[in-house]
Design brief:
It contains ten helices and no strands. The chain is mainly alpha-helical and 261 residues long. The protein has a single domain, classed as Cytochrome C Oxidase, Chain A. It is globular.
């Protein structure tokens, strides 16, 4: 039975995640092209120089944060349900997680795009959002929702695995689910830094609740997240290389235990 027929709820979630991911890739890629043309001086008729960092922020946020997170969440929903041969623990929880991520994306995108209009709200802070550059509060709230939503999506994977383990005691965890859970453990640890930065410091600062934040502390918290986040992007590629590409090539995985190492 085809995946779409066997797991229609999960398939709908995957389609939604991929739709948002590739829409973000398209818009972010367009911003990158505009940025490159402007920076090289080939053509500067799309945006003015004063809007350059608005375009640069949109490019970085949409590609580095939104595209990757939605794509990985969608891929992992597929991998967990397929490899465990069961539906997600909670479809409702999955939609809450994905919905939270989507609302967060919209909230963060509004002040970024508003920077191209006369509206007095902006988020020209790049994807690193270093203080003392300050964005509109909606940007930080949106970033927090995107991260927390991904945490909830991950919780659903672990709960689904728990149900599978209860029904299959003593069996080896399927490789795809093993890779998903390992990646999510790393994601929880690494994204904690940026979550603390945004929720504890930047949101109150942007609302004027606290007068200032320490720039060095904020950068340290961001790069506590920023350095390992590349492995959040890389490990799903390993999932594809080890569990999908061999089948597409008409071969088989050389060593399951070695892939887990």
């Amino acid at each position: 039975m085809a995946y779409l027929e066997r797991y229609p709820d999960a398939a709908q979630l995957v389609r939604f995640c991929f739709a948002v991911a590739f829409a973000s890739l398209g818009v972010g890629g367009l911003f990158g092209l505009i940025q490159a043309l402007h920076r090289t001086g080939i053509y500067r008729g799309v945006v003015s120089s004063t809007d350059y960092y608005t375009i640069l922020t949109g490019h970085g946020v949409l590609l580095a944060l939104v595209f990757t997170t939605f794509f990985i969440v969608g891929l992992f929903i597929w991998a967990v349900t397929r490899s465990l041969e069961r539906s997600l623990y909670s479809t409702r929880l999955a939609w809450v997680a994905v919905g939270m991520m989507f609302v967060g994306t919209v909230l963060a995108a509004v002040p970024i795009l508003a920077g191209l209009t006369p509206i007095e709200m902006s988020a020209d802070v790049l994807f690193t959002f270093y203080p003392q550059l300050q964005a509109h509060p909606a940007f930080y709230v949106g970033a927090a929702l995107l991260i927390v939503g991904s945490w909830l999506a991950g919780a659903n994977y672990f709960l689904t695995f728990r149900e599978w383990r209860r029904d299959n005691p003593g069996e080896r965890i399927p490789l795809q689910t093993f890779m998903v859970l390992t990646t999510m453990l790393m994601w929880y640890l690494s994204s904690l830094g940026v979550a603390v930065e945004v929720v504890v410091f930047l949101i109150p600062w942007s609302f004027g609740i606290i007068p200032e934040v320490d720039t060095l502390t904020m950068r340290t918290l961001f790069w506590y997240f920023g350095h390992p986040v590349v492995y959040f992007w890389l490990l799903p590629a390993y999932l594809v290389w080890y569990t999908i590409m061999p089948k597409l090539a008409g071969g088989r995985l050389f060593s399951d235990p070695l892939a887990r190492v």
